[in-house]
């Protein structure tokens, strides 16, 4: 199979779709007066861009932290903005449109809750955030805690990006709960 002639255009379009989805969702939440915070890869990108925009990774995910008791209001706000709600495999998603795949969605994360049983920490509250130019984003400490809690391959990669930019370092181990500090020490000891 050869490469498509429009490959670069498709790459650019994929990045733009994520950006548009993020801005459309956060504008709808803001307009409805719902507190939220952008999390995940977009939050990491915001923090990395503070130091070096060339080090920013693209992400296909739009993760937004909200309070569970706001879910009905979130549904109404995002549906007004054209999103379609789905609850699939225990995850609350808002698809770009009815025919969209889960890749074309906003994923909702609930403040103060575990994603999976047995995780070492719950998600922060939406107030553990800061204003970015167009939306609210998790503050750096909360973002680091979320990434250390999830600790999947992509989370460890995001943590390495934050380390490389000097946004976090070994001194952070002293401000983290023991289980999360141990995970950061693992990354510091063996970045690969």
Oligomeric category: single chain
- The CATH architecture category of the domain at 7-139 equals 2-Layer Sandwich
Helix-strand string: HEHEHEEEEEHHH
Portion of residues in beta strands equals 15-25%
Spatial strand sequence of the major β-sheet:
1-2-5-4-3
Mean pLDDT: 95
Radius of gyration: 17 Å
Helix content: 40-55%
* CATH topology assignment of the domain at 7-139: Beta Polymerase, domain 2
CATH class of the domain at 7-139: Alpha Beta
Low-pLDDT segments:
none
The total of beta strands comes to: 7
Largest sheet composition:
5 strands, mixed
Shape: globular
Terminal CA distance reads 32 Å
Q: How many helical elements?
A: 6
What this model shows, in words?
The chain has a domain at 7-139: Beta Polymerase, domain 2, CATH 3.30.460. Helices cover 42% and strands 16% of the residues. The protein has 6 helices and 7 strands. The strands form 2 sheets. It has a 5-stranded mixed sheet. It has a two-stranded antiparallel ribbon with strand order 6-7. The longest helix has 25 residues, at 7-31. The chain is globular and about 45 Å long.
Task: Describe the protein's topology.
Elements: H1 7-31, E1 37-39, H2 40-49, E2 62-66, H3 71-80, E3 84-88, E4 91-95, E5 105-110, E6 129-131, E7 136-138, H4 140-150, H5 153-164, H6 178-189
List its salient traits:
single chain, 192 residues, alpha+beta, Beta Polymerase, domain 2, five-stranded mixed beta sheet, two-stranded antiparallel ribbon, 6 helices, 7 strands, 42% helix
